[in-house]
Amino acid sequence: MDEATIYLRQMELGPMQNFVYLVGDPVARQCVVVDPAWEIDTIVDTAAADGMTITAALVTHTHQDHVGGSLASWGMPGRIPGVEELLGKVKAKVHVHKAEREFLTGLGSDLVKVDNHDTLQVGRLTLRFLHTPGHTPGSQCFLVDGRLISGDTLFIGSCGRTDLPGSDPSEMYASLTQRLGALPDDTVLFPGHNYGGPSSTIGREKRENAFMRFPSLGDFLRMMGGSVR
Prior knowledge:
By secondary structure, this protein is of the alpha/beta class. Helix content is 21%, strand content 29%.
């Protein structure tokens, strides 16, 4: 498909430089929203203004800044609205990797568990789920027509933290160098935060991102503070 057949909106929302995405088929007028944690009215209004209907929410991982919820676990006051508020405004299913299903409660039949290489049809588009653990056990990326939405697995010039509960630097190394490193170089990268810019390519990151260039797991673990196995 060419550019005219893909609908993709990248919105920087919230105070943590999060990128939220709308991705869909402009002919079928259907789209999904990725990581709707912030400014739900803005997300819904943007889709509506573009003539698109949100049919699903995709979760890269279940940290509060990507799905919403209480900030108490981070030692911060307040609450992020997130997917529950979204479901009060649109009829949609929430797709989360099966390893993190337990962290999204209260969604009932609106929750869909997915696994590596599952697919979702969005109009004429086929979106593929890629399991990329490391930042969290159920971290996943979404591949659609040569575009990768990478959440907190791969940033431009960096990668997600591996010093948090549930993180695993060994898995992160495999996700970066094997799972994502195996994608075509011209795959366009859209990260989960605006830490280094809005987009890149897998080829550029393999050439320039130090976290994708460590020659061995041991070298990577020494940099990330993990134990060498």
